[in-house]
Amino acid sequence: MEPQVTGMTKRRWLVAAGIAAAAAAALSAQAPAQPDWPKVEEETMRHYQAVLRLDTRNPPGNEHIVAEYVKKVLDADGIPSQIVGSDMNRPNLIARLKGNGRKRPLLIMGHSDVVTVDDAKWKFPPFSATRDGGYVYGRGTVDDKDNLTGSLMTMLLLKRLKVPLDRDVIFVSESGEEGSTGVGIGYLVKEHFADIDAEYCLAEGGGVTRIGGGVKYATVQTLEKMPRGIELVAHGISGHGSVPLKSNAIVHLAGAVAKIGDWRPEIRFNETTGTYFRKLASISPPEVAKYYRDVLSTDPKVQKAADDWLFENEPRHSSMLRTSVSPNIFTGGYRSNVIPSEAKATLDVRALPDENPAKFLEQVKRVVNDPAVDVRFTGQNERPAGPDARLDSEAYKALEAAGTRIYNTATLPTMSTGATDMAQLRAKGVQCFGIGPATDMEDGPKGFGAHSDQERLLESELHRFVRFNYDVVFNLASSR
Ligand SMILES: [Zn+2]
Predict the structure, then answer these.
(1) Cα of 143 to ligand 1 centre, how many Å?
(2) CA atoms in the 13 A half-sphere facing the CB of 120
(3) Distance 1 CA to ligand 1 centre (A)
(4) pTM > 0.70: yes or no
(5) In the chain, what are the domain boundaries?
(6) How many angstroms is it from 146 CA to the middle of ligand 1?
(7) How do residues 2-30 score in pLDDT, each as one tens digit?
(8) N or C: which end of the chain has fewer CB within 10 A?
């Protein structure tokens, strides 16, 4: 997945002395049956390193090696599981702990594949899971063998502590997340939905942000934008380049793209983004909090000024406000002395979950306003739309409470601008929440984030994440 970066700079946070960490609320939720944490940490590290050392770079994936390892671990504790897939080199694993059925199941998920690596760029070999200076280094440390390990440990703890469950807890080791969802979530939803169907799902996509070594806030992804590509095709008359024509397709296309570039579609908030900006304002230094508050203003002038600032300084936040459009491919012409009859541009459109595609296409046509330019959906890389996870749900409340209990911090619901595998589950009615361990905001720009040439996670944060994961699942699934 794409790393969650809010766009705030470290400096802004550092100058903001005495920010209230929010998390003062007293806690009423039931404390989990207490595992022997030092022993759990030793085992967590063992499984984490073991799966990191299994080379599941995708392509080709080879996720069967993770599925087999996980199955052995589950078998040893008597947790039933099945390995299923359309390609037996790339299967998924599904395990289930039975509850009494009073509530619908909870699904916890991590993906077993990782993106490819440029071996030469790694200080420690990418599949070595080297421990150094309090970190574990390796491809997959934060995407997504952290979630995989956290979910696995939670299953083991629930089983060993004989926690009585009000709902089944389903664990999925998912293949193909990094660009080949046909063998992973696509296959699971199509062929095994009954085995993974759940009221709630926890997967990747959120996390806890540390700045200057301290926890600042937690994020839980509760919805995501929908990729909806649009292409502009300009048609003109071809001819000799020595005789310029008014109908030149490249000129028409350039004009259309320029209009799109100047256009920012209307701002629209949903429950998640409205809550996100409100809460972010409440925990941010005053000089930036102003923009988060102003962008929510009903005064168009105030909102516009904040929108301009965000677009310039925190583009991810700007994208969260609206259906966004970015022209990313521009093609036309094949030799300098021929006026081409066609030119084409591709727009990366990331639609708000409630966007009406047909209406939006009409808007784009009005902005382009040129009969020589056709505007149409590409139909590529689309994901199904589904409702967002509810902030008043038992699951969100459990996540928020665990954020306070384990991290002593406030939780912000987020809408990711990129797509995740949760889209397929949301489209089936599963309420999905993206979670993750705490990472330093400084780590991404230094090249230690997901998909970069050095990926790493603090050992202490791996262990804290396991406690968080267990806390949430315990409070959501155990019988009270
Ligand atoms: Zn991922």
Answers:
(1) 5
(2) 0
(3) 4
(4) yes
(5) 10-224+384-477, 226-377
(6) 10
(7) 444 444 455 555 444 334 333 333 344 55
(8) C
